[in-house]
Design a protein that fits this description.
The chain is mostly helical and 199 residues long. The chain has one domain: Tetracycline Repressor, domain 2. It contains 10 helices and no strands. The radius of gyration is 19 Å and the shape is elongated. The mean pLDDT is 89.
Length: 199
C-alpha cells in the first residue's frame, strides 16, 4: 500500500502541483481513507520528500537506459530532452519551480542529490562527443559541465510554465551544443534540431 500511495501522490503532484494537491485528494483518487495515508506518512511534506526521490530514481533509470543505447553524444542529449518532454507534457507548472517556491527545504535536498548525478552525465556526454569528433578537442570539460548545469537548472527553477521551460531548454541545448561542436557536430546538431521541431 505504501508504494501505491507514493506512486499516486507522485503522479498527482507532477500533474496538478505540490501545493494544490491535498491528502484528501490523494485518498479520494485511491478510494482509501486519509487515515490510511497517515499510517505511512505523518504529514504531506514527508510524502512529497519520498515522492520526489521516487520520481528522480525513475528519471535516472530512464536516462541510464538512453545512455546505454549508444546514440552519438548529440543525439543522446536530444533523446533525453524528448523523454523529459513526454514525461511532463501533462504538467502545466514546472515541478522544480513549485518545489522551490512552496517547499524550499525539500527543494534543497533534491538539488543536493542531483548535482553530482547531473554533472556525471554531462561530463560523460562531453567526453563521448570529443571521442566521436562531434565536440572540439580543446574543450575545458569541467567549465562546460558547470555552464550547462547552471543554465538548465536556472531555467527549471525560475520558469513557472512547464511548456515555456521545455522551449527554453531546447534553446539552451542548442546554445550548449553549438558552443562545443566541431564542424561535424554542427551537421549533427542541425539534423537533431530539425527532428526535434517536428516531434
Amino acid at each position: 500500500m505504501k508504494e501505491k500511495i507514493i506512486s499516486k501522490a507522485s503522479d498527482l503532484f507532477l500533474k496538478l502541483g505540490f501545493k494544490s494537491v491535498t491528502m484528501d485528494d490523494i485518498a479520494g483518487e485511491m478510494c482509501i481513507s486519509k487515515k490510511t495515508i497517515y499510517k505511512y506518512f505523518c504529514n504531506k511534506e514527508l510524502l512529497i520528500d519520498v515522492s520526489t526521490q521516487e520520481v528522480h530514481q525513475s528519471l535516472h533509470h530512464v536516462i541510464d537506459t538512453i545512455v546505454s543505447k549508444n546514440h552519438n553524444a548529440i543525439e543522446e542529449n536530444f533523446e533525453i530532452r524528448k523523454m523529459f518532454k513526454e514525461m511532463f507534457q501533462t504538467t502545466d507548472t514546472s515541478p522544480l519551480y513549485q518545489l522551490k517556491k512552496h517547499y524550499p527545504e525539500i527543494y534543497q535536498k533534491v538539488m543536493s542529490r542531483e548535482v553530482n548525478k547531473c554533472n556525471m552525465w554531462f561530463k560523460q556526454n562531453i567526453e563521448k562527443g570529443i571521442q566521436q569528433d562531434l565536440y572540439r578537442k580543446e574543450l575545458d570539460i569541467d567549465v562546460y559541465v558547470n555552464f550547462y548545469y547552471i543554465l538548465i537548472f536556472s531555467i527549471k527553477e525560475n520558469t513557472i510554465s512547464e511548456k515555456e521551460s521545455r522551449n527554453l531548454e531546447l534553446e539552451a541545448l542548442e546554445y550548449h551544443t553549438r558552443a562545443m561542436a566541431s564542424p561535424k557536430g554542427i551537421i549533427e546538431l542541425e539534423k537533431q534540431l530539425l527532428k526535434a521541431k517536428t516531434q
